[in-house]
């Protein structure tokens, strides 16, 4: 594997701040698994959330050894409890942004102005924009400087309408992610429910579901090491 350049900037992990009824907030394995990949490679990381502070979380499944490794780590808990608000983030300070999934993302990611600013700036600057599962909700309403949807004509993976129906949330979420991405011109590439699917299109990296979270981390790592 390539040696890390000394000038490599951190990867920014963005977490939802939305907490509603049931399983909302961010889904822990979709943070810990790609974080573990980057930590193992020595790539620096930073956590942020929409509102700052401690974001709501579900999926704290400690039989998962990677979840347990982070959840029981005091440094990780300190970082999680004190995330900066996305509005305070300077996109030039990061090599990549990674939007962590979880159902909460469906409410705040699409409408947050800082999400749209960060994605436009980083994508147009050639920095990596990545997301997994419901994390691509951060992409649906982003317009580039030329007025086009960011996702228009882009190959993308995201939580499928079929998976949303399978978890009983199709009538709860404010929109269906796959259908909305397609409506904005994305070329959605879906695998059968709960199969790993990671798609890279230029500096855009997306994954379909929790099973794809580590793969998105690997794709970010490999692209950064190839620079």
From the spread of the alpha carbons, the general shape counts as globular
Distance between the termini: 12 Å
Oligomer: single chain
**Parts with pLDDT < 50 across at least 5 consecutive residues:** none
Binned strand content: 15-25%
The tally of strands reads: 10
Count of individual helical segments: 8
What order do the strands of the largest sheet run in, or round the barrel if closed? Answer: 3-1-5-6-10-9
What's the helix-strand series? EEHEEHHEHHEEHHEEEH
Largest sheet: 6 strands, mixed
Helix proportion range: 25-40%
Radius of gyration: 16 Å
On the 0 to 100 scale, the average pLDDT is 96
What structural class do you assign from the helix and strand content? Answer: alpha/beta
Word description of this protein:
There is one protein chain. The longest helix has 14 residues. This protein is of the alpha/beta class. It is globular and about 40 Å long. The strands form three sheets. The protein has a six-stranded mixed sheet with strand order 3-1-5-6-10-9. The chain contains eight helices and ten strands. Helix 1 runs parallel beside helix 8.
């Amino acid at each position: 594997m390539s040696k890390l350049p000394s000038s490599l900037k951190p990867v920014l992990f963005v977490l939802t701040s939305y907490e509603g009824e049931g399983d909302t907030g961010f889904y822990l394995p979709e943070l810990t698994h790609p974080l573990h990949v980057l930590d193992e490679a020595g790539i620096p990381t930073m956590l942020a959330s929409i509102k700052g502070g401690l974001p709501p979380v579900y999926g704290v499944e400690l039989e998962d050894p990677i979840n347990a490794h982070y959840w029981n780590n005091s440094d990780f808990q300190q970082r999680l409890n004190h995330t900066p608000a996305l509005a305070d983030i300077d996109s030039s300070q990061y090599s990549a942004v990674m939007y962590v999934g979880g159902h909460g993302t469906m409410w705040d990611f699409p409408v947050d102005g800082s999400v749209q600013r960060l994605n436009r700036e980083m994508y147009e600057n050639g920095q990596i924009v990545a997301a997994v599962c419901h994390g691509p909700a951060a992409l649906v309403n982003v317009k580039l400087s030329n007025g086009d949807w960011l996702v228009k004509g882009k190959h993308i993976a995201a939580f499928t309408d079929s998976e949303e129906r399978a978890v009983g949330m199709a009538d709860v979420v404010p929109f269906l992610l796959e259908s909305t991405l397609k409506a904005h011109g994305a070329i959605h590439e879906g695998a059968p429910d709960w199969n790993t699917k990671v798609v890279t299109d230029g500096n855009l990296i997306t994954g379909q579901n929790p099973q794809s979270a580590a793969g998105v981390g690997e794709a970010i790592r490999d692209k950064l090491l190839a620079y």
